[in-house]
Known about the structure:
The complex is a heterodimer of chains A (about 220) and B (about 70).
Chain A: H1 3-9, E1 23-26, E2 29-32, E3 40-45, H2 52-70, E4 73-79, H3 83-97, E5 105-107, H4 112-116, E6 131-136, E7 142-148, H5 156-172, E8 186-187, H6 194-200, E9 206-209, E10 212-215
Parallel strand pairs in A: 3-4, 4-5
Antiparallel strand pairs in A: 1-2, 3-6, 6-7, 8-10, 9-10
Chain B: H1 12-20, H2 28-35, H3 39-51, E1 55-58, E2 61-64, H4 66-72
Amino acid sequence: MKISEVAEEMGLPVLGGRAPEFEAVTTQGTLRLSDFEGTWLVLFSHPADFTPVCTTEFMAFCEIYDELKKRNTELLGLSVDSVSSHIAWIRNVEEKMGVKIPFPIIADLNKEVAKKYGMIHPEQSKTETVRCVFVIDPESKIRAMVYYPLTTGRNMGEILRLIDALQTTDKHKVATPANWNPGDPVVVPPPATAEQAEERLKEGYECKDWYLCLKKL
Amino acid sequence: MPCVSPDGKPTSSGMALLESLKDAALSPNEISAKAGQPLFRVRSGLRELKDAGFVEEEDGKFKLSKSGRLLVE
Lengths: 217, 73
């Protein structure tokens, strides 16, 4: 049995698979995953409210919020805390740090959503969610997953870069090389036949060899 | 934001959605553009307003119910 089949059988999300549907109480009312259809979504979890690394992450997510909106992308946070705790925390962040949290946060007290998305890793914590990021596309498919441990805050530049890369791939049917950033050359899909490989070198791309060709968009 | 408060009345977000339906039945996308609210919030808000009886849905478009119209007029 393939790993993706095992994961799907356990109900865990897999790349390219449908993101598990949910209905959850948030700081902005009851939301369903399907409410986000038609937009990209960054669903992320944090270990707990009123903790230092999470507070820095939330302020950093706010800094990229406008950039995400430009990319037709919404943000949705989650932790195993009550909605009252979330409200108290975001009010505290606004009062003490001067940062207003504009996006909703799921109050996943019964861990229903966290379990569906495999956000609890018992070796890290049996009660808290680790720092997960799920990039979900407008058709509700899981396009990327990132997991960070409790100790390590996420890199917002990488989240933006990841969304740029996925949207570029969708739009131009290309791949993106290591350390790619918008404006850099992209990778042309490798030829599938010997004939195409022969022709590839004559197609005007910047080729290192037949299987590694780049082009500017 | 929740569009219906615990006492059953529309919140300011809910009223903004109801106001956007004053002249015509609209789809969630059209309401999102008109009310300037994100689509996810419009969808969840319409669900609440529909459950509370302030709007009705027909062929994917939403219109004010009698009680909804009473509130905006």
